[in-house]
Structure formats: structure tokens, C-alpha cells
Amino acid sequence: MNMHSEVAQLSQSSSHKKIGGVILDLQNISLRFGGVKALTDISFDIREHEIRAIIGPNGAGKSSMLNVINGVYHPQEGKIIFRGQERKKMEPHMAASQGIARTFQNIALFKGMTVLDNIMTGRITKMKSTFVEHALWFGRARNEELEHRRKVEEVIDFLEIQHIRKTPVGRLPYGLQKRVELGRALAAEPSMLLLDEPMAGMNVEEKQDMCRFILDVNDQFGTTIVLIEHDMGVVMDISDRVVVLDYGKKIGDGVPDEVKNNEEVIRAYLGAGH
Amino acid sequence: MPFEASVAAPDGLHTFPRLLFHHAKVRGNAPAMREKDLGIWQTWTWSEVADRVRSLACGLAELGFKRGDNLAIIGDNRPHLYMTMTAVQCLGGVPVPLYQDAVAAEMLFVLQDAGIRFAVVEDQEQVDKLLEVKDQLPLLEHIIYDDPRGMRHYTQTFIHDIHELMEMGRIHDRNHPDFLNAEVDKGHYDDVSVMLYTSGTTGKPKGVCQTHAAFIAAAQGGVQVDGMTADGDILSYLPMAWVGDHLFSFAQAMVAGFAINCPESGDTVMTDLREIGPTYYFAPPRVFESLLTQVMIRMEDAGALKRRIFHYFMDVAKRCGAEILDGKPVSFTDRFIYGLGNILVYGPLRNVLGLSRVRVAYTAGAAIGPDLFRFYRSIGINLKQFYGQTETCAYVCLQPNGEIKLDSVGRPAPGVEIKIADNGEVLVKGPMLLKEYYKRPDATAESINADGYFMTGDAGFIDEDGHLKIIDRAKDVGKLKNGAMFAPNYIENKLKFFQHIKEVVCFGHDRDMVCAFVNIDMGAVGNWAERRGIAYSGYTDLAGKPEVLELIRQCVEEVNAALVSDSMVADSQIHRFLVLHKELDPDDDELTRTRKVRRNFVAEKYAVLIEALYSGKASQFIETEVKFEDGRRGKVSADLKIVDAKTYPIVKKAA
């Protein structure tokens, strides 16, 4: 499709970016919910500044994997090494303060709040002044808010959503809500961004926009991106490396072309008959 | 010409660069330009603007820009692009603004025709377009961009950041402090100040060369008629390539010294309008129409009490609002109730529309519906019409205050002479006429007759009060088979005044009856359908609903009823029509970039539909290729029903 070739062009134009060393190493991760095995013995790594896609059929364990990365789930077995240090039991807010931000499969925004306020919540980990100072609009709260607002405006400008700045999120169409959610994640100035199906339910044009934003984020801010996506065309075009899960097991890992030709991956996607 | 002398008179301010440096001297600290950036309005004063223009001009000179060169300007309304315009004029070059939403292939012709060596563009999108066709533009040497976003990886040496250019200019200026002043002094009012390309309703676009004298004369005339002062504000949001924007946002701002305000993006215009509250506002009728439609849709959602108050006072305004604005006698009770309405309804409404501070609002470019026009005037907005074209700096007729007529475009503006040719064509003469079409002496000779009149191509007449009335494009006016006059625009405009109808194309020349294509207004009809619980999946589906066809039929029949009462056009009643399965779109070449119908193209493209209309078929299948904004193509197909409308018998008046 035309769209994919265009996106491919985009990703080529930014292909001279530097991919750094491993920042997150997942070793032999297994996760169980009672008797249900969600993930079995999965190992892969994520390098700095890369776009890493996790793909797989429904129920393959992709979202569980993401939740392991940002500390929502705690695997029973395996090691997670983040920036050279083994990670102990961690809560999501700790992930946030370590520079990991995410978006959700089902949009998790505050529907009644404006776009601006929603994105502002992304700055929460960076706020230092106390609740009282904020309530009284006093002391450092004032300067701090101005500074945060400036950052939020940069995000708004970056995502081209100036026209809905003051619109309550609940009134926006789905594609724009997704963009706002990305904006909130970006406001935290993350070094690693986890995107859970950022393009689900979008039309071609919205997908194309989203692809452009993901590539731009990766390119301009050097953010490492971990992406779950169903649209194979999109995944193959924009990611640097892809890991494939099926029934909680890793069945493939490598650059898009390798994965595309991997027998097991083809079987998982197209069924055994092919 | 006597008018030119008055142009040259005041302090030798007869070119735009001189005007700019004059303003920088006398009102250096007054705001000249504003732009909303990162959610905050940024202001440049006249002296800051002059400084930047200086740097830009010197930077361009450093890159090798020479007197007589043409420079393309492509982008949304941005202060730096407006500044570039003056910078180019400082050096004796000619800025050529292009329509920023055109695709690369469309720009190619103008870029080639004008022999562009330098292009100053807004952002990555425009740079990409130029790169796409660069191999067909051997003359293009430098591309300068304003917004650095996404430009980090462009390593080509001929692409420059505008800030780099200004820095280069500053150094150049330091080393050659007299250079720019000398260049500005070389400028003459007879030099071409700008080249605006016609939209190309007919054939290839032509570059209209306008001199400093012409635009300054047109601007002075407008400023004089409306008493505009330096403390005003205008929102500059219409394409820079369009003559109206050049007159209002550039020429008049330069002459009168008021501030121009650039919106954040095309989508935020309504919010920006409210924040700026311009004193001077220009919009084509469709903008006024969509504003009103929005208000009406929101009013329908309001509570019963609010709705009743609104409608009560709107009736009052309809009765006496326009008269009060025109200073005509109105009874004391009406005046009192209107005053009350002003507090309760009109004032807040003007505020919501962002028109609280407006002293004069103008509309032109297409006919405006009488109801629409009256609505704005009745709530106290001094909305007026003018008439002009690219070749006349958009300055031929203006409606003077207190002499507003719905169906005329006003009196000839100061310095303008008007004559009606034998065939009904409007001829104009004055200081604002074009110098020539660029590299097209043949076209220049064709459009200006032996007596020095410009032939507008519009058919019209001057009424008993000396106001000009425009009927249609002279070449569009045809004849029905029975010899009666057929003025398609006239009928189409009548139909377009219905809020549910967005676009109409009428056929009838050399035929025995008039038939029409209709485009519904997606917003208005969509809302209408929602209220009636009619489910639809998209434009094509909605356009084919029997209820919608019925709705449009009523509109058509109303127009027929109106047409029959006017003996000139009684024969032009619409007998049959259909609602098109897709919206007419400039991307598919059906409309020009200024959204005028390209009649012949549409007729050719949909020949099978016209055939069906005249052959009496009840429906016709059609499949059409459409181009999406990103250049992809797709197909839309539908089985269109053809509807017969009731026509009224013509009663011949006793002679």
C-alpha cells in the first residue's frame, strides 16, 4: 500500500540515527496468574534509541509483557536488568520516575478534563512544590507551573493539536484521544515509551499521522520506543527490531525482514495449514 | 493620472519598504505583527519588523538575490513570510506567493513560469514539495524554511533556516551599512511589487504583475473610505497568494499602520479570532455562513428559555437592526427593545463570534445570501461587500457606510472609473490596474482595451443609485434553446443560500430546460438527519437518502417559485436535479483553490450524469476516482436518483 511505502521512506530518512547499547534486558521471564501461564521463559533486550515492536496473535501475552516492563506485573521467574542494574520488585510509579512512560490499549484519559489538563498530568512526576503551594498559587508553584505549561505547549505543538487545547477529552474522536494520550506520555519526557496498540481502531490517515509522530519522537528526542501493534504493515515499516510472541512463548526475534520470513511466525499468523 | 501623484506625495512614501521604515520611525513601539506560538501571542513592533526585514533582505542579497528576481513564498500566514515579502521588495525583487495547500505538481507551473531561483517556505511539508519537483526546476537555487521542525536531517546545502539567513544578513549589514538604504532608495513606485497568480478558472494560471503604486492606491482608497487607523487589528488567515489577503493584511496594514495577527494553525482560527477580537475582518461568504450555521446548531441544543429569548430578539433585530446600523429613523420602542437585545443577545453573540470589536467587516469572492447578510448587519456588525479581482488589486467597488444594498457591490471606489460595455461586461479603469500579465503580452493586450479599460469578464449593470450589480461571469451567461437568458451563477447562488446546500452546478446553455447537480452540506444535513433519526454512514450514503432528496427538492422548488416572479430568469427554473455522490473538491480539479466551480471540467467529468438528466432517466450509476489529501486514489460509486422538481407556469406580464 502507498501509505506503507511512504512511511518506509520516512523511516529510511531517519535511518542514520544511532542505536545505542542495551538498556533493558529481560532474561527468562515467566509470569503466571494462578495456574494460567501468561509468559513462559521469554528473553529479549531493548537497545537505546530503537523502535522495538512486540507482535503476536490475540492472547499471546503482549500486554502482559508491557506490564512486566513497567512494573505492573511481577514475574515469578527471570531477571530484568534496567540500565545495568537488576531490578527488584518495582511499582509503576517507580517506572515513571525512571523515565518509562506508556499509553494504554483502552484509552485511559480523564474524559471530563481538557486536553491541556490531561497532558499536564504527565508532568506530575516532575513537580516538586507541595500541594499547599499549588493550592495557594504561591512560591515556587507559580514558576514551576509556568515551566510545565511551556513544556506541555511544546508537546501540543509537536502533536499538532492546538485547536483542541481547551476541549474536554471525552468530546474528541478516538484518533485524537489516542494522540492526546501519547501527548501525556511525552509530557513526562520519557527515555522509554511503551505504546500499547497506538493505532488500534484508527483509519488509514490517522494511522499514518500516528506513525509519523512515533518516528518523529524517536528521531527528535531519541526516545526508545516499545510498541505493541497488530497492523503488520506498520510494524514492519517503522520498527528496528521485532519480537514475536505466541501463547506466551517467544517464537521469533530480529529485524523485520527476518521475522517476516520466519516459518514459525508465518504459522502462528496464518494457521498451520499454510 | 492624478491619483498617482497623490500616492507619490506624502514624504515620498511610494513603495512598501519606504512605508515600513517610515512606520518603524514614527510608531516604532506599536505592534505590527502578532503570532501565537506555544499558546502565547508573541508581538513584533514595527521597529522589530523593520529590523528583521533588514536582516532578511541583506541575507537574501548575500545569497545572491538580485534586482528583478522573483521569489516564491509558500506557507500559511506567518510573520516571517510577510516580512520576506517586504525584504524582497527592498531589493527590487518580486515576491510570488503561492497557494500553500496546492500539491507539488500544481505548484510546478507557477514556479517554472515565474523562473523562481529563491523560495521561502513555511515548513518541512513545503520543502518536501519543492524537493519533489526540484529536478524540473533547474533555476531553483535556494530554499529557505521558517519552521525548523523535522528539518534536522536535511543535509542539502541549498536548504537554509530563516534564522541562519537573518544572521547572515546581520553580518552583511554590519559590513555594508549603506547597502540596504541604497537599495530601498532605488525602488520606484512603478516597479512591480508583487506577482499574484490568477486561480486559473480558465486555462493555465497567469501571473498578474502589480506595481507599488497600484497596491498603495488601492489600499489608500480603502483606508480612506472606511476611516481606518493605526490602532486596528486584523486577523490574517486567508491564503497569502490571494489578492484579498495581500490587500488587507499587507497593503492596507502597511499604508494605515495597523497590526496583523497570524493564527496558530488553520484549525484554531475561530479561537484566535475570539482572542484577538480584530477591528477589521475579512471573510468569504462561506466563512460567515459556517459561523452562522454553528451558532444555529448550538442554539438548537440550548434550553427552551434561551431559545425563546434568542428567537424573540432575533426577530426584533430582523425588523430594525439593519436600519439602526444604517442610521435610518426607527421608532423609540424598537430602539429600546433592540438596546435590551443588545445586552442580552447581540452583544454576547458578537463576543462568541469574536466580532465584538469589529468596526468594518468585508465579504467578497462570491455572492452572499440576503438572509446571511442581514443577519450579521442586524446584530450590529458592519458587514459590507466589495468587488474586485486580482487584476484590480481587489479594488473596484466598495459599499459606503449607510448605503448598503443586499444585491449590489456598492459604488466605484475613489479613483476608479466604471463603464458597462454593450454586451453587459463591466469595464474598469484606475490607478490599481495591473501592469501586465507576466511574460504574456498577448493576454495583457486581450484584457485591456484600447481606451485603457480592464475587461473584468463579469456581466453587470449600474442601478439607479449608481451602485454596481454583478449578475454572472460574462462568458457563463448563456441562452436556453428558446432564447431566454441563462445565468447559471445567479440560480446557483440562490440555491446555495439554503444552509443544507453547499454547492450547485446548473446546466442549461443550448438546452430546453435547466438541470442541476447539488452537493449537500455535510454538517447541516448531517445534523438535520441526526435529529430525525436517519442513520447514515458517510457523505455518499447521506446524499442518497430519499429524505434528503425530498429536503433538497423543497429547496429547489422554493427557488423556482422565486425565479418565476422575475421575468428575466423565469425560464431558468430547475426542472430536474440530482445530488452528487461526492463533494466537489479542489484535489480532484473540480473546484479552483478559491473554491469556485470549474464548470466545463465538471460538465465533462460527469457527462454521463448530464446525459441522464436530460434523457429523462430515473437513476444513473456512476463511479468516480477521487484523490485523497495525501495523494492516494480511491473510487466512489453510487446509483444516483434523479428528482423532478415542480416548476411554475410563467405568467406573461401584459406589455
Biggest interface found: A-B, 24 and 19 residues
Q: What's the overall geometry of chain A?
A: globular
Mean pLDDT over the residues of chain B: 88
Report the CATH C-level class of the largest domain in chain A: Alpha Beta
Question: Could you say which structural class the secondary elements and strand pairing of chain B correspond to?
Answer: alpha/beta
Biggest β-sheet strands, sense, barrel of chain A: 6 strands, mixed
How far the N terminus sits from the C terminus of chain A, by CA atoms, comes to 23 Å
**Which CATH-level-2 architecture of the largest domain in chain A?**
3-Layer(aba) Sandwich
Shape of chain B: globular
- The termini of chain B sit apart by 47 Å
Which sequence of SSEs, written as H and E, runs from N to C of chain A?
Answer: HEEEHEEHEHHHHEHEHEEHH
Gyration radius from CA atoms of chain A, angstroms: 19 Å
What's the main sheet of chain B like?
A: 5 strands, parallel
CATH architecture label of the domain at 17-210 in chain B: 3-Layer(aba) Sandwich
CATH superfamily of the largest domain in chain A: P-loop containing nucleotide triphosphate hydrolases
Q: Provide the CATH superfamily of the domain at 17-210 in chain B.
A: ANL, N-terminal domain
- The CATH class of the domain at 17-210 in chain B is identified as Alpha Beta
How is this structure best described in words?
- The complex is a heterodimer of chains A (274) and B (655).
- Chain A contains eleven helices and ten strands.
- Chain A starts with a helix and ends with a helix.
- Residues 1-15 of chain A have low confidence and may be disordered.
- Chain A is α/β, with parallel strands linked by helices and 274 residues long.
- Chain A is 40% helix and 23% strand.
- Helices cover 40% and strands 21% of the residues of chain B.
- Chain B is built from 22 helices and 28 strands.
- A five-stranded parallel sheet of chain B has the order 4-3-5-6-7, sandwiched between helices. In chain B, strands 12-13-14-15-16 form a five-stranded mixed sheet, with helices on both faces.
